[in-house]
Design a protein that fits this description.
Helices cover about 25% and strands about 20% of the residues. The chain is built from three helices and five strands. Strands 1-2-3-5-4 form a five-stranded antiparallel beta sheet, covered by helices on one side. It starts with a helix and ends in a 9-residue tail after the last strand. The structure holds adenosine monophosphate.
Length: about 110
């Protein structure tokens, strides 16, 4: 999508602090980190939100989680632990409408979920 900021990071039109990329996913550091390690894993193809997923997307979504696991190990936070979050629509606080998996870690989580 032409007006999607994460599509622009995937295509290289906007610079992102990219830590990993492959044919299906791109991962980059969050511009406003909520934890010492805060990385966003996004599909290279545009999908607005979890609400728009179809059965054909299941391998892609699984790949995003495997990618998150590998990046957590690469970042040295796998052993101590990390949190994976996907916000969907207003009540969850989704602000960028291109699915993204937040990978948060590097310190004990202070806030309870919800
Ligand atoms: P969400 O609230 O789940 O939609 O999360 C969107 C995230 O994208 C926020 O944590 C933002 O800080 C992050 N973000 C927005 N623009 C950029 C950008 N250009 N590069 C990296 N992260 C961004």
């Amino acid at each position: 999508m032409t007006d999607c900021i994460f599509c622009k990071i995937v295509s290289g039109d906007i610079q992102g602090n990219i830590v990993y990329r492959d044919e299906q996913t791109t991962a980059f550091r969050d511009i406003n980190p909520a934890a010492p390690t805060h990385i966003l894993i996004v599909p290279n193809k545009h999908i607005d939100s979890v609400n728009m997923l179809i059965v054909d997307d299941e391998p892609l979504i699984g790949h995003m989680f495997t990618t998150a696991k590998n990046i957590a190990a690469q970042e040295g936070i796998a052993e101590n632990g990390y949190r994976l979050i996907i916000n969907t629509n207003a009540d969850a606080g989704q602000t960028v409408f291109h699915i993204h998996l937040h990978l948060l870690g590097g310190a004990p989580m202070k806030n309870p979920m919800g």
